[in-house]
Amino acid sequence: ADEEAYLHCWNVAASVLGVDDALMAHTMDEAQTLFDCMQARARGPAPVPDPRPALGRALVNAMEQTIPIGWLKPFAPLMTRYLCGRRTADLVGIDQHVSGFSRVLFELVISTTRLIDTLARNIWPHFSLSRLLTRVLGYRLVTRLLMDQTRSLRLPTQLLGQADAMLDHWGEDVHAPRWVNAIEDRLTTFGSWRD
Questions:
Q1: Which of 47, 143, 154, 184 is at a distance of 20 to 30 A from 172, taking alpha carbons?
Q2: What is the pTM of this model?
Q3: What whole-number distance in Å separates Cα of residue 18 and Cα of residue 95?
């Protein structure tokens, strides 16, 4: 059920970005097949000129702009490399130099988050600090990159309603204790994420 929900979220995001429904995966098997095809194509001969490094750098730069604290900005390429894997990150040009201090701090945050999640789940079975952090970062990215219509990236008018509905749905983590939702509200916005 979680896999299908995750896939549905990707399809909603793709729909918001204007991807044709026929190009989306609707089952996990379809998603795996599509992912394998995309990976094989990406690892094949690079087009000339290769647009991927410039797009990767633009993504990281946009992510860094949503991070308000300067010494945390290196977390943008580090998190992207962590989530995508080294090989994929290299292919898309996410290879920015990051200081040793930032690398160690990032690994410490990841390790500490995992430890806290493991220990806290003994008391609160649905507790997830990693989910809280992901939701806070996701809120910042979505509201600053997609929903801020003063930026150069503008969603088509017909997609704004879908994006607003998505933000409304994400306003509360139903699996988290109330006090975790209260922390999330303080770090994002109270109630609906659209307000």
A1: 154
A2: 0.67
A3: 29
